[in-house]
Design goal:
It is a single chain. By secondary structure, the chain is mainly α. Helix content is 44%, strand content 9%. It contains 19 helices and 12 strands. It has a 3-stranded parallel β-sheet with strand order 1-2-3, covered by helices on one side. Strands 4-5-8 form a 3-stranded antiparallel β-sheet. Helix 2 links the parallel strand 2 and strand 3 (69-70). The longest helix has 16 residues, at 16-31. It starts with a strand and ends with a helix.
């Protein structure tokens, strides 16, 4: 049975790279009908950030990544927080001590630093095993416990990276348990994966250089190797370096606050370095479960494209039913919307839906439906087409529009016919006349289709705004 795990550290907010690792582990388990485990690697107390554990859960819940076992749901291998598993690590460490594969580190930090500097001066790589003590003291828990490596070359298979190898020169004696009693990641994750019967170890590319040491430890413990899958880095928009905070590696929940849908984030993150071999770009949760396999993950870096994310979000917004969208925009309405009834707001929302790229766009696209805009002829003066026309002619066109609309029915179809008749009457192009009218009734840079906009605004407000525009000219 496939068993995968996501084991983040509670050291700050969750960014896209972290969450992609968890998502790929979840999809691997769900595709195979297996189990997904959430474990918290909280043994580095100096770097721990309060509230991070809750934040991790909130991010997973936002994407709908439910757990079969873990810190919030329990399970047969509890506890799932490493800080609560210290006795387990000491038990496994004792096995290594008993077989002569671990020893107490007698050196101070200053002495180890001297060893490093000596190696640097001699222009050779620093290896702790070159300074391994001949008669180490009995380990009593007050000093670091080190693994006694048996250097050798390794070849191993990675589901994403393919067949890899490394020489014996990179295998070294690393710390298993620190002097504060907490295990290192290098030790704890192997113990936990073995104890929890994890079958697939899916993690980021930064750990690949440590694989020879891990393999040496697996052998020392007599453990069967799991399946390894290394996720390539997520790169910035230019594809020339690893994604950093300046490039968009921000709190994933910040995207939700900015009006991105969880469905968008799920599909976007899943397709950062993975595809199903087709041209499909938008995937539902169920489609991802059915189609995801590790052999379709690319081994080169995946470029973080903010424009693609924005495009995808607009596509997912358009696929929502009006009722669903209505429930999601509760916190995004513009000021003044609370004074309108639900029926009116639903009309406005239906009109704006096709233009929304994020939910945060709602105020920009709809504010003029709820508050009277101030005429601003500079917007017309800055328009490439309208700026070529004399102000008097523009006022004349607005007057003709007002006269025509006074006798028009105010359904969208009838209004479209009235506007078409105006084109014939004035001899103007649609891009000129309709843009002028759009500015006059919204004074907004963007707005939905003109007839539908006027229909929702109604006769009185439309005519009043046209007159206000004329008066302000």
């Amino acid at each position: 049975m496939v068993r995968t795990r996501f084991a983040p550290s509670p050291t700050g907010f969750m960014h896209v790279g972290n969450l992609r690792t968890g998502l790929f582990a979840w999809l691997t388990a769900r595709h195979a009908g297996g189990d997904f485990i959430l474990r918290l690697e909280d043994t580095d107390k100096n770097r721990e950030v309060e509230g991070s554990a809750d934040h991790i859960l909130e991010c997973l819940n936002m994407l709908g990544l439910e757990r079969d076992e873990g810190i919030d749901v329990g399970g047969p291998y509890a506890p799932y927080m490493q800080s609560e598993r210290l006795a387990i690590y000491r038990e496994w460490a004792q096995r290594l001590i008993d077989t002569g594969r671990a020893y107490a580190d007698p050196y101070t930090a200053e002495q180890v630093q001297q060893f490093r500097e000596q190696a640097q001066a001699e222009k050779r790589p620093f290896l702790y095993r070159n300074h391994r003590p001949e008669n180490p003291p009995t380990w009593d828990g007050t000093t670091p416990l080190r693994f006694k490596s048996e250097p050798k070359s390794y070849e191993w298979h990675d589901e994403v990276m393919g067949d890899l190898h490394a020489g014996a020169e990179v295998v070294d004696d690393f710390i298993l348990i620190k002097s504060d009693g907490y295990p290192t990641y290098n030790f704890a994750h192997i113990v936990d994966d073995a104890a929890m019967q994890v079958t697939h170890v899916i993690r980021g590319q930064e750990f690949i250089s440590s694989m020879p040491n891990y393999l040496n430890l697996y052998e020392a413990l007599g453990l069967e190797l799991p399946i390894f899958a290394t996720m390539p880095h997520i790169l910035n928009e230019n594809g020339n370096k690893k994604l950093g905070k300046r490039d968009g590696a921000k709190d994933v929940l910040e995207y939700v606050r900015e009006g991105y849908l969880p469905e968008t984030l799920l599909s976007f993150i899943a397709t950062l370095g993975w595809n199903d071999g087709t041209e499909q770009e938008l995937f539902t949760r169920q489609e991802l479960i059915e189609k995801f396999t590790l052999d379709r993950v690319q081994h080169s870096g995946a470029r973080f494209d903010e424009k693609r994310l924005l495009w995808m979000n607009g596509q997912f917004i358009r696929q929502l039913s009006l009722d669903d969208l209505w429930n999601r925009v509760v916190d995004f309405w513009p000021e003044g919307a609370e004074n309108s009834n639900d029926d009116y707001r639903r009309q406005v929302l239906a009109l704006a839906q096709d233009r929304l790229k994020t939910l945060h766009d709602l105020p920009t696209l709809t504010s003029y439906f709820f508050a009277e805009p101030t005429p601003d002829w500079s917007m017309i003066d800055d328009n490439k087409q309208l700026s070529k026309i004399d102000r008097g002619r523009l006022v004349e066109l607005l007057g003709a529009t007002k006269s025509a609309l006074e006798s028009s029915d105010f359904s969208a179809d009838a209004l479209q016919q009235t506007l078409n008749n105006l084109l014939e009457q004035t001899g103007e192009k649609p891009g000129t006349l309709f843009s002028l009218i759009r500015f006059a009734i919204t004074w907004a840079p963007f707005s939905p289709a003109l007839p539908e906009t006027m229909e929702v605004l109604g006769r009185d407000r439309t005519l009043q705004r046209l007159q206000s525009a004329i008066d302000a000219a």
